Amino acid sequence: MQKVILKVEGMSCSACSNHVEKYLNKQKGVIDAAVNLVMGQALIHYEDDLTIDDLGRFIEESGYKYGGIYDETLENKKDYTKSYLIILGLLMVLIMYISMGHMLHLPSIPFLDMMMHPVNYAITLGLLTIPYLIFGFDIIIKGIKNLIHKAPNMDTLVTLGVLVSFIYSFTNLILIILGHTNLVENLYFESVCMIILFIKLGRFIDKNSREKTKEAVQELVKVTPESALIKTKNGPKEVTIDEVKVRDILIVKPGMKVAVDGTIIKGEAHFDESFITGESLPSKKSKGEKIVAGSINYDGIVEYQAEKIGPHSTISEMVHLVLEAANSKMPISRVADKVSSYFVPIIILIALVSFIIYLILGFPFNTALIHLVTILVVACPCALGLATPLAIVIAIGEEAKRGILIKTSETLEIASHIDTIIFDKTGTLTYGTLELSEVFNHSAYTKAELLNIVANIEEASSHPIARAFEKYKTSDLKITNYEEMPGIGIKASINKRNYLLGNRKIIPGANDFENEEKSLTEKGNSIIYVLENNKIISLMGVKDILKKDAIKTIKKLKEMGLKTIMLTGDNKNTAHNVGKELDIDEIIAEAIPKDKTKYIKDLKETDHKVIMVGDGINDAPSLTSADIGISFSNSTNIATNSASVIITNERLESIVSFLDMGKRTIRNIKQNLFWAFFYNTLMIPIAIGIFEKWGLKTNPMFASGAMMLSSLCVVFNALRLKKGNDDKNV
């Protein structure tokens, strides 16, 4: 199976995207297709015997333009729409003055006076309408195509309204030229112009708003430099990114950006990785550690070996994850999709029935026509089409900027229903590496001096505990008589002083530090005894310590009403010590992967919605079993995780942000759908003329303006997702 993201041009409402999606899914070899209106893209999973050209042909056959494979460089084409809108907007002022100036008792243009020179008046308005027809020609063509393909959409409604008004007005224009000047008041050229202008203006604003939702993707793409400094026999040489190959040795100097993903082989420096982790503080990297393309080197010269380039880089993987999520379908969106598929044909039917009824009741033809055109224009389902995809794209883009990658939009909807969250312990709630947690110092040394002695002795050891002391070495001490005692500890001498470091077995007999031992043990520490010349000078506690934001995160999750559970393979004492410190609701220890998966499945069978948070490797089965799996990434293996959410900033509290965004997104979508449905429910009866006797009526010009405003309401409401928690009080 293959997958690809293709550009689809010309879609204007949910009926468009629904039609393309349905057409693609009907094609042999297409496993699944999801079309996103806001992004103008189609995420397609297809069988190996199909080609990209085949998929492009399917898009063209559906009546829309195939724009090629999505290009991460996002090259912007010059758009003259704004200039056309300004020119035609100014021209609209002239048209309105000519056609309606007399209603406001404004001075008329002598040779264009409606009553004195009806032929001049009619011909002038007819000619001034031509630029608008040219400007809106794409709408008319698409509207006709969609009608032919039996997939009527917003363009179809606008096209029918515009063509009916224009043909009726043009017919009257011919009759006026032939002498029937009494028809001069039955011209609706200004309505044609106004409808096209408002529709185009609405789409221009809408397009600009949609472009803002792609900022996260654009920012990710722009972080990588265009060139790299490669190491050669003749010294450093600047090359383009395209020239870099895997295993090339590259150089990054202070102030430069890392060109491609790689591993440091020489030097050390602090790197700004805020674009991918969300962490503002620079991170120190040295030999053997990985660095990511786009990171900024602050203060050292580093040589690194290129490992991931082009489409395999971390940035490319992030971009594709964000795009795939934006193009996936959220269950709630099916409501709008289903409604839209029936909505347009029903509106056309309502408009025709209304037109016929007005004629049967004896109303003038032009009155029946105005109602027909108004119904067609006012009911355009543009707002309905934007309601769901716009909110999804904004939410996923915003979370990506915070270092939270969401693989599917469905995950956001599930997040709003979660009631239970399960954590693995090691590497999830804790750092997964042993750290020095507490020191009891009974020597004449300062704490720093004591730790420097221990760090120097432990330096030669391969035991995992030794790593806990590395950062405490402040100077080199001469070590002699070094000897490791398996299962016990280490012997060494410094300046003729003999030292023993190890567990309780190194103590010759009873000691006076039982209270300290008990304190360290109760807190889940492994105890390192330090003896100098056979005298205990220190007890040091080493343990896998909690992540700095673990307690705060658990507290916030409980405040949100979620049940918190720790499900770990670690021993019961250690697990309960950690769980007690975190105040977790339930602790399950000594669980093998099979036990974890069964426990999660049992919870789901009792109608619980479950999140599993783990390291993405040992916890892969349970991550997959949960409703949502959340994994932390080292930012170089993003695409290989089993989870549906990947947190690249390594912060536990990002889980709270993700859950909050899920709830706010669903609330925002429901608001959007309400206003879209409310608008059509309110405006269609007004357009039919049901409330005219109470003075409530409209016409095609106002209808096109109202339709544009309804779309803008949805756009601005969705953009509120960018403003943190502002919409919580709505």
How would you describe what is shown here?
It is built from 23 helices and 26 strands. Helix 5 (137-148) crosses helix 6. With 730 residues, it is of the alpha+beta class. It has five domains: 2-69, 2-Layer Sandwich (Alpha-Beta Plaits); 85-223 and 313-385 and 663-730, no CATH class; 225-312, Calcium-transporting ATPase, cytoplasmic transduction domain A (Distorted Sandwich), CATH 2.70.150.10; 390-429 and 547-659, Rossmann fold; 430-546, Calcium-transporting ATPase, cytoplasmic domain N, CATH 3.40.1110.10. The two termini are 44 Å apart. The protein is elongated. The strands form five sheets. The chain has a seven-stranded mixed beta sheet with strand order 14-26-25-24-15-22-23, with helices on both faces. A six-stranded antiparallel beta sheet has the order 6-5-7-13-8-11, with no helix packed on it. The protein has a six-stranded antiparallel beta sheet with strand order 16-21-20-19-18-17.
Beta percentage is 15-25%
> Largest sheet, order of strands side by side?
14-26-25-24-15-22-23
Averaged pLDDT, please?
A: 82
Number of helices: 23
Number of strand segments: 26
Poorly predicted runs: 635-640, 725-730
Estimate percent helicity: 40-55%
What count of domains describes the coordinates?
5
Describe the main β-sheet briefly. Answer: 7 strands, mixed
User: What oligomeric state is this?
Assistant: single chain
Q: Structural class, judged by helices and strands? A: alpha+beta
Taking the alpha carbons of the first and last residues, their distance comes to 44 Å
Overall 3D shape:
elongated
Radius of gyration: 35 Å
